[in-house]
Every structure is written in structure tokens, then in C-alpha cells.
Amino acid sequence: MSPDALRCVVCGADLRGGQAARPSTRRRRPGQVSLPLPLALGILLAFTALAVGATYAAVRLIGGAAQSPSATPTVSPTVTTTPEPTATETPAPTLTPLPPINHTITTGDTCLGLAAFYEVSIRSIQDMNPGLQCEFLSIGQIVLVAQPTPTASPEPTSTLSPADATEAACEKLTYTVLANDTLGAIADNYDVDLQAIMDYNGMSGPNIFAGQVLIIPLCARNPTPGPSPTPTSPPPYPAPNLLLPPDGAAFTLANDTVSLQWASVAQLRENEFYQVTVMDVTEGSGTRRVVGYVTNTAYIVPTSLRPSEALPHVMAWWVTTVRQTGTNAAGNPIYVSAGATSARRTFTWSGAAIGSTPTP
């Protein structure tokens, strides 16, 4: 505020302090402008409003003129799928046939036994040994046995082939040939065609020997009138355990009878029996023997088998289980094997007392 001011520019109060107003003797400086307060405030507000308006207009003008450039869409590159490499099947390895086995024939060997031991067929043994006769194997003979070549298991099928179905449906049993047996008699006993027995056992002729094991195809029985026997599955009876007499026991003329005893294998069925065979080994031919059938576990050797000479004879005996399947044309019972055969035991039996030399 100027020192010579007569009124306050803020509140408008008179600064002369009640003195009469007198004209100022002081001169205004050149260029000095005095404005009333309300007018100054108005001018200030006007300039402020003008500046704000100009700023707003400039912003709008610049914002409208500057157009944002349109975004150019970027084309994404197409993903090319790389094909998976084709799997190449590895060829299956070619199986090399194994060399045949050289088997030396020992006592008791048969073609059937060799086939079962090496898990091959009798036919394959005959093919590996042209001219081989299974019924005439000699001790020390070399027999070639083909080893089975492992093959991939075929896919399981729900049905059997006609040939396999026929083979599976055929009921078979094994028979051990005894001394003086003939193939024809065996075929008649089981009422089976003789040629069928030869075919099942790979035999070229009807010759057989004691101890030979034969397969009897019961499905090849000759047709007979009347109802056919109902096939039943034989129970798996184990070999009987022989008890008495001990192996190698000696009996003399004082022993009228010899009692044989063994342990029971199971409760036998109504048509099942123990078959007891006692053979005079010393006699040599193998024909002097008795065969008995009992349902208990004891058998008394008949005195008819006791030798008539003082020289002790070696007697061999064994037991097995059999099952009666019917009768033959002569009315004799037909027995089939129902289990394993026991081990053989022996005893000696002398018949006549050694005579004393008369004293003269």
C-alpha cells in the first residue's frame, strides 16, 4: 500500500483519521495504476478462468487431431506338425533247432518212457531213428531223441481243433506187459482193436516183452451190443507201501502159508481191488506165478506156489490197485489200472526137507 493512500485497498477504511479530506499534494508516479480491490480480484479470476479454458481447449484439439494409429494385426505363424517317425518292427529271431540227444538204452527203457521223460512223441523218436523197433530195444543201444524247438505260443482259442478234441475225448490207460502176455490177448482182454494199440504205441509189429508199458486206447473198443460202460475218472491212487514180510525173509517147509501185508492207499470203491502178483523168480520162465484180487490189505500166498524141492526159490511180489470195468465174452472180469504199482520185494521159500542118508 502507498504511504499517501487515503483509503485501505483491502477493507475500504478511511485513512485520514477524521480529518477533512484534502486534495493530495503528491503526484502519482508515471506508470502506477491503482485499482480497487474487488476489481483486482475480478480481473485475477478472469485471467485464471481464461487460462484453464485455453488449456482445456488445447488438450481437446490435440487429442482429436492426433489419431492413434490402428494396430496392424500380426499374423501368427502356422504351427506345422512334424509327423512321428514310423516304428519299424524288429524281425523275430529265427530259432535254431537244437541238436538231438544221444540216449543210451538201459534196463527197463521203452519208447514210451523215453517220450515221457524227454517230453516228445514216440513218432518223433522213430523219425530220428529210421528202422527203430520200439519193442526190440537192446541195452547199450544209442537212440537219438530230438529236443523240442521252443515256439511262440499261439493265441488262445476258445475251441479245440477237431483232431485235438478227438484226442482229448479218448479215454486211455497204461498196461505193463507181463511174462507170456501177447498183444492179441491184451487186445481181447480190453476189447480194443489190436491195430489201434499198435498205432498208439508206435509199434511196427505185434511183438511185446515183459515190463513194456503200453497205452490202451479205450475209445477204440470194438462195438458190442448192450449198454456201454459208463466211463469214470480213476482216482489218483498212490503206490501201496509194502509192510510184511520184510524184504529177503526166508520161509521153509515148516511155513505152510506166507502172509503178505501192505498199507491201505484209500477207501476203495465198490468195483476196485488190490491186485497182488507173486512170481517164482528162480523158476526162470516167469510163468510160474499167481495173481490175486482182494479188497483188504493182506493176501495169503497159496501153497500151490511153494516149490517141491529143497533148494530155496526166490519169490518176488508187488501190489497195485485195479478197477473192474466189465466182463469179456467168456464172462471173465476186465480190470484196468487204478493207480501206481508198489516197489518189488522178495522172499525165499523152500519146499522139501533135505533127506538124510540112511545108516546101514
Task: Explain what you see.
The protein has 360 residues and is an alpha+beta fold. It has a domain at 234-353: Immunoglobulin-like (Sandwich). Helix content is 19%, strand content 20%. It is built from six helices and 13 strands. It has helices at 37-65, 111-118, 122-128, 162-169, 183-190, 194-200; strands spanning 101-104, 142-145, 172-176, 213-217, 242-244, 249-251, 258-262, 272-280, 289-294, 298-301, 313-327, 333-337, 345-349. Strands 6, 8, 9, 11, 12 and 13 form a six-stranded mixed β-sheet that branches. Strands 5-7-10 form a three-stranded antiparallel β-sheet, with no helix packed on it. A hairpin with a 5-residue loop joins strand 11 and strand 12. The radius of gyration is 62 Å and the shape is rod-shaped. Residues 354-360 have low confidence and may be disordered.
Largest sheet: 6 strands, mixed
Helix content: 10-25%
CATH architecture of the domain at 234-353: Sandwich
The span between the termini is: 201 Å
CATH homologous superfamily annotation of the domain at 234-353? Immunoglobulins
- Kindly estimate the percentage of residues that lie in beta strands according to DSSP: 15-25%
List keywords for this structure.
disordered C terminus, Immunoglobulin-like, three-stranded antiparallel beta sheet, 360 residues, six-stranded mixed beta sheet, 6 helices, alpha+beta, 13 strands, single chain
